[in-house]
Design goal:
Elements lengths: L1 H13 L2 H15 L6 H8 L3 H5 L5 H16 L8 H18 L3 H11 L5 H15 L7 H25 L6 H13 L7 H12 L2 H19 L6
């Protein structure tokens, strides 16, 4: 009996929490949240459910751990440069992570609303908040400025990920944008005058450049709201 216990302990130690989370991320990337089940996870890891439950209590905890692991990896590098350049780097890190892991956008929103105590939300707040402080924003406005910046990043990156999921798998990006712009150009000019005029910009825009332009708009607002800073 004691020998069996020691063997079980060795198997549990060999199957680390990090390996379980890594496999969970792989499943999420391949099939989304619905594809992450403990049955499939045990098959992928060639183990029994008990060994997994030793490290994570349930699917909810596993989703939080997977989300935090991807975000931590995206924010691992410490950018160097002006506060504005560092904001760009951090924002692009999150943008790229959400682009590479489409399931991440929905999980981040769930973490913000259901579990703001951590670990995911504080990690993002800290990374962006440090740069907000460096911009010279008064301390009493750190939370507001950081929250606005974070919500823009997650909203824009999440929309980009959603767009890539909705578009036809074999559709060329340029063709997709051209078709959308053409549809806008056919709108009734009396109701959609401005949208029709923006159609050509839609056809030619680059997602990452547009994303960074939005970051600069937010930073320009921070600079206008708190003059004397370094935005």
């Amino acid at each position: 009996m004691a020998t069996g216990t020691r063997r079980a302990q060795r198997r549990t130690e060999a199957l680390s929490r990090e390996r379980i989370v890594e496999a969970a991320v792989e499943l999420l990337d391949a099939a989304g949240e619905s594809g992450l089940t403990f049955r499939v996870l045990t098959e992928r890891l060639a183990t029994g459910p008990g060994a997994i439950y030793w490290h994570v209590a349930n699917k909810g905890e596993l989703l939080v751990a997977a989300t935090d692991a991807v975000v931590a990896d995206a924010l691992a590098a410490e950018p160097a440069g002006s506060p504005r350049e560092e904001v760009h780097a951090v924002a692009l890190g999150l943008f790229s992570a959400i682009d590479a892991h489409p399931w991440l956008a929905a999980q981040l929103l769930l973490q913000l609303s259901r579990s703001p105590g951590g670990p995911v939300t504080p990690r993002m707040l800290e990374s962006l908040g440090r740069r907000v402080r460096a911009l010279g924003v008064p301390e009493e406005h750190w939370f507001t400025a950081t929250s606005v910046l974070m919500h823009y990043v997650l909203g824009a990156a999440g929309q980009n990920a959603a767009n890539s999921q909705v578009a036809e798998p074999d559709a060329d990006r340029a063709e997709f944008l051209a078709a959308t712009a053409e549809a806008w150009e056919q709108l009734d000019p009396r109701e959609y005058e401005t949208t029709r005029l923006m159609a050509s910009q839609m056809r030619e825009h680059d997602d990452r450049e547009q994303f960074l332009a939005g970051i600069d708009l937010v930073l320009a607002g921070v600079a206008a709201r708190y003059p004397g800073g370094r935005a």
